[in-house]
Design a protein that fits this description.
- This protein is about 40% helix and about 15% strand.
- It has 12 helices and 10 strands.
- It is globular, with a radius of gyration of 20 Å.
- The relative contact order is 0.11.
Length: about 290
């Protein structure tokens, strides 16, 4: 592996036991890219320093240099998983950017229910569900639309087993429920519990959570009518974006809907999607 020139040290003096060297940074960055598709630039060296300190302590290592050396010489799957999960961004909130959920409620759900065969359930995939807020927001949107009586499956996947554990629990702090939830939705679909809020079983039962890596084969997940893959592609290089988009396309039914983040697009990357009129975040799949 070719060492990368060291980045300026951005850690606060005394906060970390040592700065990450160029060789150690290259080792960790390449591992994360290979396993998750996430590209870590030199300007994010401070994140490597801060986020991996807990991995260093848990594995009783002397520092980032020993962690890096272990990753090069005798890495275990558990250690690799811990490193990748530590470097994964888990920022999320309920109904993040309300426009996709409004489109889901007013356009996509009615159209899909009208067009699909009633012999199979409507299937929706939250492809980077983190601690569950997006998947549960989808479930609440379906319930509020009155279409939850139809056969429906919502799948939430994430690379982080820790975050998936939180998602399955469905318990959120006062701060978390204040981010994106109206008082009416909170009162209707959550209940106060243990100093926070527990999502009601009527919503939780609508969602299944599974650990899955977007770099892995998506075929076992089956096909979907709608896929949310938001604020994920921004962390990938162009080659990985194309690979992921093409894999997602293979999991969408013809004419299925894809929701991306506000700073993401399929244009110039994949010709398997066309943007929906009036929005730059929603795309439909095209036949090959």
């Amino acid at each position: 592996m070719t060492p990368i020139a060291p980045a300026p040290h951005q850690a606060i003096a005394g906060l970390y036991p040592q700065a990450v060297s160029s060789v150690d940074f290259a080792t960790i960055a390449e591992l994360v890219r290979m396993r998750s598709g996430i590209v870590i630039g030199l300007d994010k060296a401070y994140l490597v320093e801060s986020r991996l300190q807990n991995v260093v302590r848990t594995n009783r290592l002397s520092g980032l240099a020993e962690l890096s050396a272990k990753l090069r010489s005798h890495p275990t799957e558990l250690l690799i998983r811990d490193v990748v999960e530590a470097m994964t961004t888990n920022e999320t909130l309920f109904f993040r950017d309300t426009r996709p959920f409004e489109h889901l409620r007013t356009t996509a759900l009615p159209a899909m229910h009208a067009a699909r065969s009633h012999k199979r359930p409507l299937r929706i995939w939250s492809a980077a569900s983190s601690s569950g807020q997006e998947a549960y927001s989808i479930a609440v949107t379906v319930m509020e639309s009155g279409l939850d009586q139809h056969p429906l499956q919502i799948l939430g996947t994430d690379i982080s087993t820790e975050q998936l554990g939180r998602a399955r629990l469905g318990f959120y702090s006062n701060f978390e429920v204040q981010r994106g939830l109206s008082a009416s939705v909170l009162g209707k679909h959550f209940q106060k519990a243990h100093g926070g809020w527990q999502i009601r079983d009527t919503v939780r039962r609508m969602v299944e959570f599974r650990q899955w890596n977007l770099m892995d084969d998506l075929y076992p997940l089956g096909t979907f009518d709608l896929i949310f893959c938001r604020n994920v592609l921004i962390y990938f290089d162009v080659h990985t974006k194309r690979r992921v988009l093409n894999a997602i396309w293979s999991r969408l039914v013809p004419g299925g809907w894809l929701y991306l983040g506000g700073a993401e697009t399929t244009l110039g990357i994949s010709n398997k999607f066309v943007p929906c009129p009036g929005t730059h975040q929603v795309y439909t799949s095209v036949k090959e």
